[in-house]
Design brief:
Elements: H1 7-17, H2 23-28, H3 43-47, H4 53-63, H5 70-88, H6 91-109, H7 111-122, H8 128-140, H9 145-158, H10 163-173, H11 179-190, H12 203-209, E1 248-253, H13 260-263, E2 270-274, H14 287-303, E3 308-310, H15 313-320, E4 325-329, H16 335-339, E5 346-348, H17 351-357, H18 364-368, H19 371-375
Parallel strand pairs: 1-2, 1-4, 2-3, 4-5
The structure holds flavin-adenine dinucleotide (FAD).
């Protein structure tokens, strides 16, 4: 299974999958089947906004009634919800990174942990489904949602490895590796996100949804919630900066590789690309991921008609100094936002995010009630960007 790192490839996948967004998705989305044709596999494109949620929702609603495509639409909004939830509580990302540093220190000093972690990442645990998914992740940069849930559950409750090491393994290899969906997905499995509620991988569930390819034995039979910090109080959401004046540079990062919605509002005097993917992990990233991102940035440069490539944060600072102001798409909570924190920029939030994030205050079910209201913007196919 290959992911061509271009916007055109993402749009082609969107066109090809649109007929399946209704009943087909609802009936088949939980099956982890070779090739993964039953799900959209749009996430690497959505994660980097090579294709936007807005484009996906418009295509979906042009082909299906909202009621028929309800499940698919809800899944698209899960990404939005997780991002909004983390924007309300950015310290959860910082806690994850602190916990990861601690776990990586423990790996250095505890040889048993180091061996178990190495075996899990190499797909050498002896649990056939888990080993299959570990290798699939490294080889393709993708895992089905159900496989991510089973994998995280086995990692935490059967192998009893620190969850932060598993989340980091995902972020080093997933082409869609996302600070919000990943951190909060792992926390959800471990019982930290929805307090007291864990996800237990069950052999009969794995057998059913892998069409009998796997029926693991000796998985943990109980999943006691992990100890952790309580969810922090909400902080204020970020707001969009005003449009800058004067000589303006546009900075593009991997968080938004289609910045046309910014250049539609303001003319810029220079464009630069900064690939902050390496900030996803303190360790080296997998080859599939780095080559996908190199291709995605090449494609972006081509689409923008050329751009300066900036190798590191110092280069971003030097480049920014040549303008009166720098404008960029708001970088959501995560490694790139952390890395660029000391550089003054005008950060514009996509209207799609601004409209939805305000509702990501508590659980998804409360957020879900707002989806019909958010979808009303599409009644006359108005773009939210
Ligand atoms: C432990 C764990 C870690 C995860 N880590 C990531 C991650 O790093 N990056 C990431 O993008 N997703 C992550 N997910 C969510 C989900 O697994 C993927 O978004 C989905 O599998 C992508 O495949 P798809 O595009 O074929 O999805 P489809 O089923 O076709 O869904 C369509 C779109 O809806 C969104 N979506 C679907 N399910 C979810 C979900 N559960 N949470 C958030 N958005 C969803 C995605 O944008 C996806 O492209 C994680 C889930 C778990 C349980």
């Amino acid at each position: 299974m290959m992911f061509d790192p271009t916007r055109d490839a993402g749009l082609a996948r969107l066109v090809a999958y649109t007929p399946k967004m209704g009943r087909h998705y609802a009936g088949n989305r939980n099956y982890d089947r070779p090739g993964h044709d039953d799900v959209s596999r749009l996430s690497p494109y959505l994660r980097h906004r090579m294709v936007s949620e807005d484009e996906v929702l418009r295509a979906c609603l042009a082909a299906h009634a909202p009621s028929t495509a309800e499940k698919f639409i809800q899944e698209v909004y899960w990404r939005t919800y997780w991002k909004g939830w983390l924007e309300h509580r950015p310290s959860v990302w910082t806690q994850y990174r602190t916990g990861l540093d601690q776990a990586l220190n423990d790996v250095q000093t505890q040889s048993g942990l180091r061996r178990a972690w190495g075996d899990a990442c190499a797909g050498a645990t002896g649990i056939d489904c888990f080993d299959h998914w570990a290798r699939e992740l490294v080889e393709t940069g993708y895992l089905h949602n159900h496989a991510r849930m089973w994998f995280a559950s086995i990692w935490i409750f059967t192998l009893r490895l620190p969850w932060e090491l598993g989340a980091d393994f995902f972020l080093r290899h997933l082409l869609d590796g996302d600070p919000a969906s990943n951190t909060l997905g792992w926390r959800w499995v471990g019982g930290l996100q929805t307090v007291g509620k864990t996800y237990l991988a069950r052999p009969d569930n794995i057998a059913k949804y892998t069409d009998g390819r796997f029926r693991p034995r000796d998985l943990a039979a109980f999943a006691a919630p992990l100890d952790g910090y309580p969810n922090p109080d909400r902080t204020a959401l970020p707001t969009s900066s005003p449009l800058p004046k004067g000589n303006v540079g546009l900075l593009v990062t991997e968080d938004d590789l289609t910045p046309d919605w910014i250049t539609d509002q303001i003319s810029v005097d220079g464009v630069a690309l900064y690939d902050g993917t390496a900030h996803r992990s303190p360790l080296h990233l997998g080859e599939r991921l780095t080559s996908f991102m190199t291709g995605a940035f090449d494609d972006t440069a081509k689409r923008l008609g050329g751009a300066t490539r900036l190798a590191d944060v110092a280069a971003v600072k030097d480049w920014a100094a040549g303008f009166d102001a720098v404008v960029m798409s708001y970088p959501p909570v995560g490694g790139t936002a952390d890395a660029l924190a000391s550089i003054e920029t005008h950060k514009l939030i996509r209207p799609y995010d601004a409209k939805a994030w305000q509702y990501a205050t508590a659980g998804f079910f409360k957020f879900k009630d707002k989806i019909p209201k958010l979808l009303r913007a599409y009644d006359n196919q108005l773009s939210l960007i």
